[in-house]
Amino acid sequence: MNAAPETGYGQHVAIIGLGLIGGSIARGLRVAGGAASIVGCVATTEDAKRAVELGIVDEATTDLGKAVAGADLVVVAVPVGAMADVFADLARAMPAAAVITDVGSVKMAVITAAREQLGARIGRFVPGHPIAGTEHSGLEAGFGALYEDRRVILTPTPETDRDAFAAVEALWRALGARVTEMDAAHHDEVLAATSHLPHVLAFALVDTLARMAERTEIFEYAAGGFADFTRIASSDPALWSDIVSANRDAVLPVLDRYIGDLEALRGAIAGRDGAMLTSAFGRAKQARDRFASQYIQDQG
Amino acid sequence: MNAAPETGYGQHVAIIGLGLIGGSIARGLRVAGGAASIVGCVATTEDAKRAVELGIVDEATTDLGKAVAGADLVVVAVPVGAMADVFADLARAMPAAAVITDVGSVKMAVITAAREQLGARIGRFVPGHPIAGTEHSGLEAGFGALYEDRRVILTPTPETDRDAFAAVEALWRALGARVTEMDAAHHDEVLAATSHLPHVLAFALVDTLARMAERTEIFEYAAGGFADFTRIASSDPALWSDIVSANRDAVLPVLDRYIGDLEALRGAIAGRDGAMLTSAFGRAKQARDRFASQYIQDQG
Ligand SMILES: NC(=O)c1ccc[n+]([C@@H]2O[C@H](COP(=O)([O-])OP(=O)(O)OC[C@H]3O[C@@H](n4cnc5c(N)ncnc54)[C@H](OP(=O)(O)O)[C@@H]3O)[C@@H](O)[C@H]2O)c1
Ligand SMILES: NC(=O)c1ccc[n+]([C@@H]2O[C@H](COP(=O)([O-])OP(=O)(O)OC[C@H]3O[C@@H](n4cnc5c(N)ncnc54)[C@H](OP(=O)(O)O)[C@@H]3O)[C@@H](O)[C@H]2O)c1
């Protein structure tokens, strides 16, 4: 039995930005086979040429107006800080009925930018965030299976049209993702804790060690645990600077809480308070083991 | 061509503690095939029975004296904090010529304990630490290939006999490891940075999040980056409490340096200082990428 491809998201899809996230959407849509055309918008003519060569999209252009001219659905997959400018251009160039969604890792800042730039089209806008990624970025980094069995959080505004929401939901379903709805402010708090804070901590650790005199040797004697722990510190610096700045108000409280807890642990280490250390580490292990058994499919 | 198994470590090997580290040594020696007998010492008769059933050792006992009676080489693979007691028993029970080595993650504290307990036998003692492990522990956690292509750091004291050092080097070679020699205090500083600090940071993060009101939801929306970042927080709490306490004097300075750097980043986030964030994250990415390309064989 061959199920007909899911097409509730429209025939013509335009993707602004073909990096890890946008490029993976394009590749996944190809495989799913429901869209009549996929057009990509990128920054340079070289990337446009390369995107078509790689078979990611049917057409690629550096001209946003051209990219979205016939679009039913526009996916904005650029860094959060670049979205306001893209929205301003879209408000001028997009067909009136087209649905617009984004993939930004922060939702409140993107919604504010959308309200300011999209004007009367705000009802067509469905804010979204796929909970999937790797530490790689750029045109070559994407892959079609990135969203399979992953969660995508949609954070509609009070103005969001029902049919626009349904179209974006259909897009992610076609890519194999599981869609959840959430309040935007709450999304930003949850992601500050599980994603933005860990990135800051990993970047900070590697930077601290890299600036120590013995740095070469330090890395030479690091093992598998260190490799896993620091993987996310190989992520794109500009993208993550952008994310933590845009989500500052949610990142700071959880960062402060962490620094406070770390200082308490420091006290316990200084005082060789084994009972306190064992109980804090034990609570952590219990929570991590529960997380692993519930949410990680591919445990190594 | 079948190379004769490496046997420079002696015919009769006793391993005190058959957890992840000791059990992996036993399993690896079985495969290497150079020892005439491998005897394990464990805490309970159930574990002794199970260890023989699993085929990890030829014999297992809860009686340390029995375990080491005919040994050429004794490997102590218990938590760092338990080593002093084991050394005290060994000083009474071990044949005079037997070589003794340990696998503890901290070296200065173990050497101090060895000096206090081993007395005249201190020349037979070769402190060691395999840079290999997983977040699992116990009798079932070990595997014979754990040390293949891994580094083992030996930190001999001025008293260490040359032949004892050579025997322990031969043991690790037989298991496929690469042996390096290092000063014990320096070892403790390097490992504080690459292993002990990351464990503290990972335990602290998971504990911070687990104690937040929204904890269930937080973990539900965590992705692959979080799973990798927190893997080491599934390690044994008592073992790691023991390690950071034993290595307190090396852990505190690098932890303080880290907290200072994290507070500077906090200031940059609060001030939305994108340039500062991008440059710190960028230095980290550069160092992590270099580390990955030089030292990680099995990149995902
Ligand atoms: N990485 C993750 O794990 C992850 C996960 C979920 C969501 N997201 C979100 O997904 C979005 C894209 O991230 P990504 O990981 O796909 O990054 P990426 O691989 O670096 O791709 C970003 C894309 O945006 C373009 N771009 C960069 N700066 C721009 C600007 N100022 N104006 C217009 N276009 C610009 C890039 O073009 P050039 O290559 O020519 O610069 C590239 O096509 C971000 O909003 C991010 O928050 C990321
Ligand atoms: N885990 C790593 O990644 C790693 C890496 C390199 C070195 N090390 C070092 O290797 C050593 C062993 O660690 P492991 O990971 O193998 O831990 P493990 O799997 O928990 O094994 C520890 C072994 O020591 C025994 N033991 C525990 N407490 C004891 C005590 N008070 N007296 C005597 N025996 C005791 C345990 O017996 P029971 O099961 O009956 O308690 C078990 O056989 C530690 O010194 C550690 O620092 C660990």
Please provide a written account of the structure.
The structure is a homodimer of 300-residue chains. Chain A is an alpha/beta fold and 300 residues long. Chain A has 2 domains: 12-182, 3-Layer(aba) Sandwich (Rossmann fold); 186-295, 6-phosphogluconate dehydrogenase C-terminal like domain (6-phosphogluconate dehydrogenase C-terminal fold). Chain A is built from 12 helices and 9 strands. Chain A has helices at 20-32, 45-53, 64-68, 83-93, 108-118, 162-174, 184-210, 215-220, 224-230, 237-246, 248-270, 274-295; strands at residues 12-16, 37-41, 59-61, 73-76, 99-102, 125-126, 128-130, 151-154, 178-181. The first copy, chain A, has a 6-stranded parallel β-sheet, sandwiched between helices. In chain A, helix 6 links the parallel strand 8 (151-154) and strand 9. The longest helix of chain A has 27 residues, at 184-210. At the A-B interface, helix 7, helix 8, helix 9, helix 10 and helix 11 of A face helix 7, helix 8, helix 9, helix 10 and helix 11 of B. The structure holds NADP nicotinamide-adenine-dinucleotide phosphate (2 copies). One NADP nicotinamide-adenine-dinucleotide phosphate is lined by residues 17-22, 42-43, 47, 77-80, 82, 103-105, 129-130, 133, 137-138, 141, 236, 239, 243 of chain A.
